[in-house]
Amino acid sequence: MSKRDYYEVLGLQRGASAEEIKKAYRAKAKELHPDRNADKPDAEAQFKEANEAHEVLKDAEKKAAYDRFGHAAFEGGMGGGQRPGGPGGMGGNGDFASAFSDVFDDLFGDFMGGRQGGRQRAARGADLRYNLRVTLEDAYNGLQKTIKVPTSVQCDECNGSGAEGGAEPTTCPTCSGLGKVRATQGFFTVERTCPTCSGLGQIIKNPCNVCSGAGRVQKERALSVNIPAGVETGTRIRLAGEGEAGMRGGPPGDLYIFIEVEPHGIFERDGAELHCRVPVSMTVAALGGDIEVPTIDGGRSRVKIPSGSQSGRQMRLRSKGMPALRGGATGDMFIELAVETPVNLTSKQKELLREFESLAEDNNPESSSFFRSVKSFWDSMKG
Fold it and tell me: Which segments constitute the CR-type domain (predicted)?
């Protein structure tokens, strides 16, 4: 059976450039590889054909000879797979490993790292998280706090290199510094992490006796942290470079401090606003008067209670709330009245209250309105 024209095999016109030939071959290799076409028995033969065409056309001298003489240029041993440099040298014996390695990165580049090799001679240290509880007063004022963080720090004995005396690591002999090795299994060329250097590309002949070659040791560090005014639960503070030290001199990670503001016994926070529930006596609520309420800054504010105030009534104290974390504004504080019913009354007090009740006519507008509505409801039910 006569061979097809190499340009036709790759879907090209004569005179195609080297870049066009390379691009067309890779597309064909992806399309025709037998492992992607298990249901097409002729895919293997077509893959061999495309590979043979590429071997000729990618070489400038062979391409010139083919353009002039066609397949006859390689008769006499070059086309049948006998000569190592010939076009059939890779396809004639059915060995796809070297051909597939050219398109390996295109097929699996994103999945296995492609041509980058995965070498990580100096690995970055891990980020750390520290949970910090502060009081509401601390969140209002801000504070400078010293925290102790158990972490990995650079080994002073080897200056982070992992080698005794601070010597430089040597190139791994197994992977030649690439961090990965390739193994051919049938049609596949599989890349895996180098077992000798664990992907670092380097080995240490004489590990440091302090850090055992890691380049870092465990230690508790004391750090001074600035907590700005206005923080609230969930606020995250990043300290760059204060995380774990990197492996073998790699850059350190970051430390993230997560703030939790403790509940307060008097104030309840809602963003920049503060709420304070203040009990008042029945007499003050009825007659009116002045009361003193605490503020988060440790001060006091006098609040005038209007006569006839009911439970749940709110009054605003401007700029007595929490400072905003960004922007410099300060929230407000809201006072909520809770009218308190007296308990443990004496006989005299009970007598006076009964007398007051007998004299009360229209002093309870809310209850009067409610019971009028109830009476109307019952009357409608009877009708």
Answer: 142-220
Q: Give the annotated binding-site residues for Zn(2+).
A: 155, 158, 172, 175, 194, 197, 208, 211
Query: C-alpha distances in angstroms, 99 versus 16, 27, 53, 149, 247?
Result: 21, 13, 12, 53, 37
Question: Could you tell me the end-to-end alpha-carbon distance of the chain, in angstroms, rounded to an integer?
Answer: 108
List the single range of 76-90, 118-132, 155-169, 203-217 with lowest mean pLDDT. Answer: 76-90
155's tokens: 């080994």
Assess whether 41 and 151 both reside in one domain. Answer: no
How far is residue 358's CA from residue 363's CA, in Å, rounded to a whole number?
A: 11
- Residue 285 belongs to some domain of the structure: yes
Q: Is residue 244 part of a domain?
A: yes
Strand partners, 278: 337
This prediction has a pTM of 0.55
Number of CB atoms found within 10 A of residue 35's CB: 14
Task: Quote the DSSP letter at residue 332.
Answer: -
DSSP one-letter code for 300 = E
Angle between helices 43-57 and 18-32 (to 10 degrees): 170
Coil, strand or helix at 379: helix
Residue numbering of the annotated binding site: 155, 158, 172, 175, 194, 197, 208, 211
The conformation of residue 285, written as its DSSP 8-state character, comes to H
Q: Do residues 68 and 143 both lie within one domain?
A: no
Tokens 């076009």, located at residue: 87
Confidence of residue 160 (pLDDT cuts 50, 70, 90): confident
The tally of CA atoms less than 13 A away on the side-chain side of residue 134 is: 28
Q: Which domain holds residue 372?
A: 347-382
